[in-house]
Design goal:
The complex is a heterotrimer of chains A (299), B (386) and C (180).
Chain A lengths: L22 H13 L3 E4 L4 H6 L11 E2 L6 H19 L8 E7 H6 L2 H10 L4 E6 L25 E2 L2 E2 L8 H6 L5 E6 L3 H13 L4 E6 L3 H5 L5 H10 L5 E5 L2 E6 L8 H4 L10 H18 L3
Parallel strand pairs in A: 1-2, 1-3, 3-4, 4-8, 7-8
Antiparallel strand pairs in A: 5-6, 7-9, 9-10
Chain B lengths: L1 E5 L1 H11 L4 E4 L6 H12 L6 E4 L3 H13 L4 E5 L1 H16 L5 E6 L13 H4 L7 E4 L3 H16 L7 E6 L8 E5 L2 H8 L16 E2 L5 H33 L8 E4 L6 E5 L3 H14 L4 E6 L1 E3 L3 H7 L5 E6 L10 H9 L4 E6 L9 H13 L5 E3 L6
Parallel strand pairs in B: 2-3, 2-4, 4-5, 5-7, 6-7, 11-12, 11-14, 14-15, 15-16
Antiparallel strand pairs in B: 1-8, 6-13, 10-12
Chain C lengths: L1 E8 L4 H14 L3 E6 L9 E9 L14 E4 L19 E5 L4 H4 L5 E5 L1 H8 L6 H12 L4 H11 L3 H18 L3
Parallel strand pairs in C: 1-4, 4-5, 5-6
Antiparallel strand pairs in C: 1-3, 2-3
Classes of the chains: A alpha/beta (299), B alpha/beta (386), C alpha/beta (180).
Amino acid sequence: MKQPKYPREEYFGPGHRGCSGCGAAMVARMVLKVAGKDSIVVTPTGCLEVFSTPYPETAWRVPWIHVAFENAGAVASGIEAAIKALRRKRGMYKDRKINVIVIAGDGGTADIGFQSLSGAMERGHNILYIMYDNEAYMNTGVQRSSSTPLFASATTSPPGKYSKGEDRPKKDMPFIMAAHGIPYVATACISYPTDFMKKVKKALSIEGPKFIHVLQPCTVGWGFPANETIEIGRLAVETGVFPLFEIENGKLKITYKPPKRKPLKEYIKRQKRFRHLTDEDIEILQKYVDERCKMLGLD
Amino acid sequence: MKTIITRGTYAAAEAVRLADVDVVAAYPITPQTECVEKIAEFIANGELNAEYIKAESEHSAISAIIGSSATGARSFTATSSQGLALMHEILYIASGLRLPIVLVNVNRALSAPINIWCDHQDSISERDTGFIQLYVEDNQEILDTIIQAFKIAEDKDVLLPVMVNLDGFILSHTYEPVVLPDEEDVKEYLGVYEPPHYSLNPDKPVTVGPVGVPKYYMEIRKQLNDAINNSVKIIKKVNKEYKKLFGREYGDGLIECYNLDNADTVLVAMGSVCGTVKHVINNLKKEGKDVGLVKVRCYRPFPKKEIKKALKDAENIAVLDKNVCFGFDMGSLGLDINATIKDKKICNYIVGLGGRDIKIEHIKEIINHVEKSKENTTKWIGLNKY
Amino acid sequence: MIEIRFHGRGGQGVVTAAQLLAEAAFFDGYYCQAFPFFGVERRGAPVMAFTRLDKEKILLRSQIYEPDYVVIIDASLLNTVNVLEGLKEDGAVIINTVKSKEELNLDCKNIYCIDATDIALKTLGVPIENTAMVGAFAGATKLVSLESVKKAILHRFPGKLGEKNVKAAELAYKTISGEE
């Protein structure tokens, strides 16, 4: 794959308080490299918000706002409406596109922020909503979210005598968003930065609501060494746990097909959150992944 | 300038149109709904150039308005009761981010039991959110106060959200004459909106709503407290300027004193009931009896100094509350007056909850009771036997 | 201060009648106030609306308990609602009925009967009697002028619909006052 040129400018600055190996910081950095200066970012409560803005410091070199946990979709709606009104009434931002981008965690998106997100998508606001998915409430110490995968251990779904960890499969956000009839939905993973940034760029070129679900392995919550974030993400894609695709105007397209899908075990065995699983448990999960890959047309 | 006969919700909508608001976000709820319906109609007809966000809840409505206000647009929302309660968490953020939002609350009781009629429990429950809270008496005051609210909120010495409270049904659904100022005059009065320096603008990037670590949090809260205290003089100034330009004023902007000279007995109240109290006062005056009224127009910031002065000669103080502080057996205004005035007889009257009509006899009963009362008490007025 | 209570059923334009009367009075130099009974009634249920008129600014915000006038748009309510409740001793009733006041046998000295349904059918083609009843009120009480009633109706219903309603009010006014 030819490496496209991305701007050298950084709009998500260094020096923030993210953990070493933090994937959320990589998400913010990659998004802003593509989106550039003319962007306004909304981040609901979560790791990214907390580690990037301990007053009086900030990592954000574009205008940025945090309001609460559950309302990023609504806040972005208001920003987009304001830009429209200011453009029309006061001649601001004439002949200039301003990107309104939400960068929100899985809890703030799939759980508590779900209604607000659904409202914003349904109303057709011209915004890009990026869900950085680390598959649990990492900011408060690894509680399960609706995005936590089946059998993963989290502090509120611990394995035990009567439990195998999380007892529900992961909520299917991209398809739920696609059901809103929005023009662009995509999945991405920080381990494939070119693919991710290409999708951000494409999304920003489309008028209307866009949603990108980006997988972002979390060294603390998933339990792997800080230097393995990218590798774990790559395994998620190559095993088919997290397929990369686009749904453009309702049409599904796989954007990366692993030449030969790796066994799930290679992904599972690298993370402490799955260490309680037996070979039979992993077999159940493997079946689950196989079915989904078949459904998506990955195999 | 022309006079129209209109209902309270429409008077509010007219004020929003005259204020040339940029963004409106709202969710329908009785008895507020007609206000935003009218605004939607203005926008649909091209009478107001604004974006209207049909939010999927009040929580999202206030959140969207925070987004638009933070981006530098003059922003408005309206709600009632449960809707205001649903906004609760975000109201603190509107004031904490120092956004000059105007919110109209059409006062309605809170559930349970579910009740769509008027009392003040909804807005009183948001007393400490850092919003400036104004209460109005009639439909003219609705229109004037909303226009003033933008002037107050956007003042560089204030920069706080303002909640204008009007009584559900009693005002919202009542037709009466309202003088509409000319659009050009209001435009000139409010000026082209200049957003605060901390607005979201890619040419001057700022971080809005960062984490306030313990080292800074308290100072930021103190600044908010200072700002709402300082707004007292701006509210007064705005009231005076408004009188000069539009010919109407509401007391000193904070409180209105009615027939206080020679009155030993003084009622203290907020909202539309002040009209009924004035009506009774006028009739009693014809019979040779002087009773006074202190109408509290600005409830937050609480005008302690002005109220103290207004009540200095009163012997019997009767405070009317359309809300209850459960577990304290008083209403909120009653508590505040008790905290402000020492060594005077102050009786508190719980009236008009959930739309219970406040009749002339009720006001007379309150006057009789407070005059005969030997000590500070709380009494519920207009209760049926149960 | 003059207080008027309107009785009718949901869907008959009872609240509109109270508002039209208030607006007409305003054109005649009164302060005015009009409001519905704040209920949860739906179409067909008995409803009330109120109008206050005064030469001075109206401050009172309570409902009306001792009206000077009662306007009854739907006579079938006589069997279900105490429409005369609180009516002042020298007060008056204006009622839409085919009966005479003797046949009605109401406990009230001043009764004005008008077949507003007939007028509405003749002028509007539908049995919506609210504008005719406002015209009848003006004709019976002379508190507001016919001109102002017409102006209020046209303001509320511009165009053809307004003109038809003006005819209804006019006919009712003339019928009840005997003026030509």
